[in-house]
Structures are given as C-alpha cells and as structure tokens.
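Aim 2 progress. For Lysophospholipid acyltransferase family protein, the working sequence is reproduced below.
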Amino acid sequence: MFYWVVKAILAPLLHLVFRPWAEGKEHVPRKGPMILAGNHLSFADHFFGALPLPRKVISLGKAEYFTGRGLKGLLSRAFFTGVGTVPIDRSGGKASEAALRTGLRILREGHVLGIYPEGTRSPDGRLYKGKTGVARLALESRVPVIPWAMINTFEMMPPGHPLPKLGIRPGVKYGKPLDFSRYYGMEEDRLVLRAVTDEIMYALMELSGQEYVDKYAASAKVEQARAARNAATGTTPPT
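Predicted structure tokens for this construct:
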C-alpha cells in the first residue's frame, strides 16, 4: 500500500519537472511473475524505471539502506520501502544464496522483480559485465526476462551527485521478453549461466546504445579510485 501512496505522490511531480518518456511498455505483461533486468546508471533509476508501469516493481537492495539510525536512517528506510526495495545482505557466500532465495520467493508470489545484473551503478555511463545471479533466477523461476534500459539518467544524476540536473529528460526502454526455456534444468552449469547473462547484457546494450565493457563495474570502480589516489599523490602505477 505504501508503494502506491509514494507513487501517487511522486509521479505527477516527476512528470511535471522532468518530463520522462518510455518506450516498449507493451512488452511488459500485465500479470504474472517476471524479471525486469536493467542497466544501472544512476540513483534516479529507482524512480524512472518503474514509473510508467501499472504494476509494482520489487527490487533487491543492500541491507545498509534499512539499518541507519536517526532521522537520516528513518528517511532512508521510508524511501526504499516506498519504492519497493527489499533488503538483502550482499556480502557474498551464503548471503548471495539467501538473496537468490529471496528473489525466487518474490517471483513465486507472482510479483515483478527488478534487478540490475551489473551489481552496482556504472562509474562512467558505460555498460559493464553482468553477474550471473540474474541467470540463476531466470532459469530456476522459469519466468520471462524483460530487458529494461535506462536512458539519460547518468547525465541527469551521475554517481556522487545528490541532486538531479534539470533540463535532461530521463527515459526507459522495455525490450521484448527473452525466452531461456532451452536452458531450463541447466541452472548449475556455469557456462550456461554466463551465456544467459551475456544474452541479457547484449539486449541491454542494443536498447541503451551504451558502450559495453567486459569487466565488472565494481572492479572498474576500484581501478578508478586507485588511479585517482595515484594522481593525487604523484605515484606512478607499476607496469
């Protein structure tokens, strides 16, 4: 209920200020479970990706969003609850398996699960290698996967910028459902999981027009941070 209250309040305001646009809504089924697999450019994706859809989109978010204290923590919990985020532990190992089970439960209940295969926001607006958790979810749940490409949200609100820029129209493109039924029963095969994930990322590249980078976004962020530290200290990286 809180999700729809937040959406009813935010939607008219966001439409008035940012004039968002959407393409391909007809590809998103009106009922039944599905996975919306999207690129992740900005914090603003939480708003504009689900905004055009008449269905609630549930996403998985790091538990830290829900554990803060004081007024800031309260506002954070209220916001992420309002945009349909379910807290998960992203520390890896058993926590990753628990996150997978949470996603499967959401799908078994007939909901729409929004997921960002890159695992984190793009540091530079390019599309990075997807993690195979989305493939396991798709094969174990046997639900359709809809590519979900955000447009212009990086330019409007890049990582590290707390406020969006005005004058940039954010958009979202929904692609045709991807059918992976030929791989059902093969969710333990790592090569199959990589093939499914890469097919999803290729569909996102086609929709978004982004340059693809064959490395994980988290690794790219580490490299960029190291380069920034070296530049600040005048250190030459080893060859």
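The beta strands are 21-23, 34-38, 57-62, 85-88, 112-115, 127-128, 145-151, 171-174, 212-213. This observation will guide construct design in the next reporting period.
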